[in-house]
Specification:
A: 237 residues, alpha/beta, 6-stranded mixed sheet, 8 helices, 10 strands, 35% helix, globular, B: 413 residues, two-stranded antiparallel sheet
Chain lengths: 237, 413
């Protein structure tokens, strides 16, 4: 088994929008190794969202192949994709997407419910994940009793609780002020330092600057793919 | 997703919207209330009619030969009534003939009836049922004595002037004094009180304890009928099968005695609990036939309301469904979540309906003479129907939810 966690080969995605045929991705090749910290950038219309859906196994390509952790997911059916999302991918969304009526703990337990983990183990693992993101004291609060930064931490705990191969964050700081954004980015940095593979989809250059590698999309193809110098404060963790 | 998890989820969202959830399950609630209440009323009626009505008025395994019906529960045509009026009166000789020729083992008692006025000193009781009869009558009626004794067949033979009173009559006329040994006047004829029958209770609110019984041959008998004429001939068999046999025997014996040709109808009438209850059975059958229809209508309406609520829930929670799918929920997880939620909603309605139905049955029992009793099977059926309605109503919305595309669902505001 190689150290590659993600391998995209000639990924194409076309949509039918009315009478028009839209080609959101036009042959993307990309390889990401275990424990990389990659930011995917691009202006709106570049195919960035489609790329994120594709990497998150929410969508399948029109052509090309996608290997995730050694399995070809590009040909999988709905329920198999659901299982892959559950086991391999931890999502962090711009709008947090927490269930409003459930406590932080219950939100974090959710992926484990679908993984078929017993109630006792679920509770233990969810508590551990929340403690890891510094919310050990607020586990029984509902999302509306938490600040934006705390909500995003709950979402990160939820993404991590099933120990996914990749952490996939879509504009994770889009709804946060700059101080809180820094705080959240520090959490990603720490997770990366502990061995987590992190993928960041963003259009903000200063957020992308936290990643070690930046992939820029333009018109459905990769425009550039370069390494960042490591930021000093990430290593300190 | 485990079943328990789905039920807990369902409860969470029901609790979150209590009022809306309550309204959505009113249809099922009403349907099940109706089911429980009607079944318990009909069964109560059944018990009442069989035990009290038939048992008290006619007697267990007993029938009466009469010239015309006494207890009239059903409709009768003008022609039937004319026929009954033409029937010859029953006589002591008819009764003796039957008693002599019947093979089926049975108890017999002849009787005559009238409404009379009783006097004791200055106290008076009006509209009292007088029965002049044989000693066996007490056994046929299963009368226990509160005081004193019944009369004997010896006293019937000699035409003794003795009387046995019903409980209420004894209390009313003697106002707390001991009636035994007192002489009362029945329509002006003196009789000595020798016993009081234990309390029989009421039927349809009418007292069964306002009667006086004297020997068939007592002086009071002339108040009831002309000499030799009787009103009833009671026959009590040992069990229902023998009763039917005895009825057939009586019919053919009477037809022979009266010289009826095969083409001619009976010119006498056999009254049994079965005949008196036949009409009630018809009513009960109609109620039981109408019941499923009425329950079904409210359950279908309830199901449609729940389906509607669930479709709204799916629309409102599209984003939640998207999140769940992104986190690894399979189609069947989403499907199960909404079907269980719908079933939970519906079962909650059914359980409330069962509660309301039981309360209703108890209220009927408390405030009416009907011994309305909740049938366990109707409770089981109520819960079962609740689950079924909820699941059927939930399938379509749940299917819609499970087929949502996670990308589109997540984009929903």
């Amino acid at each position: 088994m190689s150290t590659d966690i993600i391998r995209l080969e000639g990924i194409t995605r076309e949509y039918q929008m009315g009478s028009e045929r839209v080609r959101a991705l036009r042959g993307v090749d990309l390889t990401i190794a275990r424990n990389e910290y990659v930011a995917i950038m691009g202006p709106s219309g570049s195919g960035k969202s489609t790329m994120m859906n594709m990497l998150g196994c929410l969508d399948t390509p029109s052509a090309g192949a996608y290997w995730l952790n050694g399995h070809e997911v590009s040909r999988m059916a709905d329920d198999d994709l659901a299982r892959v999302r559950n086991r391999e991918i931890g999502f962090v969304f711009q709008t947090f997407n927490l269930l409003p009526r459930a406590s932080a703990l219950a939100n974090v337990e959710l992926p484990l419910v679908y993984a078929g983990v017993s109630a006792r183990e679920r509770k233990q693992r969810a508590e551990a994940a929340l403690t890891r993101v510094g919310l050990g004291e607020r586990m029984h609060h509902k999302p509306n009793e938490l600040s934006g930064g705390q909500r995003q931490r709950v979402a990160i705990a939820r993404a991590l609780v099933n120990e996914p191969s990749i952490l996939l964050a879509d504009e994770p700081t889009g709804n946060l002020d700059s101080a809180t954004s820094e705080e959240i980015m520090r959490v990603f940095g720490q997770l990366h330092a502990l061995g987590q593979t992190v993928l960041l989809v963003t259009h903000e250059p200063d957020i992308a600057a936290h990643a070690r590698r930046v992939v820029v999309l333009r018109d459905g193809v990769i425009d550039s793919d370069r390494q960042n110098p490591p930021p000093a404060h990430d290593v300190a963790a | 997703m485990p079943f328990f998890e789905a039920v807990r989820l369902a409860w969470d969202s029901i609790r979150a919207q209590k009022l809306k959830s309550f309204f959505s399950l009113v249809g099922v609630l009403i349907g099940v209330t109706f089911l429980i209440a009607v079944v318990s009323i009909v069964q109560g009626m059944n018990v009442y009619m069989t035990d009290k009505f038939a048992g008290a008025l006619i007697g267990v395994n007993t029938f009466q030969v009469r010239s015309r019906p006494n207890i009239q529960t059903g409709e009768s045509t003008e022609e039937e009534r004319r026929q009954w009026r033409r029937n010859p009166r029953l006589t002591t000789e008819d009764a003796a003939y039957l008693e002599e020729n019947m093979r089926t083992p049975a108890r017999f008692a002849q009787s005559g009836n009238d409404q009379v006025t009783l006097d004791w000193g200055s106290r008076q009781a009006k509209q009292i049922n007088l029965t002049t009869t044989d000693a066996e009558y007490f056994d046929i009626k299963h009368y226990d004595m509160a005081e004193g004794r019944p009369f004997t067949q010896q006293e019937v033979r000699i035409g003794a002037s003795v009387a046995v009173l019903g409980f209420d009559l004894g209390e009313k006329l003697f106002n707390g004094r001991d009636p035994i040994g007192q002489t009362i006047s029945i329509g002006g004829l003196p009789h000595r009180v020798i016993g009081v029958v234990a309390r029989q209770g009421t039927i349809f609110g009418i007292s069964l304890d306002k009667f006086v019984i004297t020997p068939l041959t007592s002086p009071a008998r002339r108040l009831a009928n002309r000499p030799h004429v009787i009103d009833d001939f009671h026959v009590q068999a040992e069990d229902p099968a023998q009763m039917r046999q005895a009825m057939a025997e009586v019919t053919s014996l009477m037809r022979v005695r009266r010289g009826l040709k095969p083409s001619q109808p009976d010119n006498f009438y056999i009254e049994s609990a079965e005949a008196a209850l036949a009409e009630w059975d018809k009513i009960a059958k109609v109620l039981f036939l109408a019941l499923p229809g009425l329950v079904a209508i409210s359950l279908v309406v309830g199901g449609i309301v729940i389906m509607n609520i669930m479709l709204m829930a799916v629309a409102e929670r599209t984003r939640e469904i998207g999140v769940r799918k992104a986190l690894g929920a399979k189609r069947r997880d989403i499907m199960a979540q909404f079907v269980v939620e719908s079933a939970t909603l519906s079962v909650t309605g059914a359980v409330l309906g069962i509660g309301a139905g039981i309360l209703l049955a108890f209220a009927i029992r408390a405030f009416s003479p009907l011994p309305a009793a909740v049938a366990p099977w109707s409770v089981g059926l109520g819960v079962g129907l609740g689950i079924l309605v909820g699941m059927v109503a939930g399938v379509y919305p749940a299917r819609q939810a499970s087929r949502l595309d996670p990308i589109t669902a997540l984009r929903q505001e």
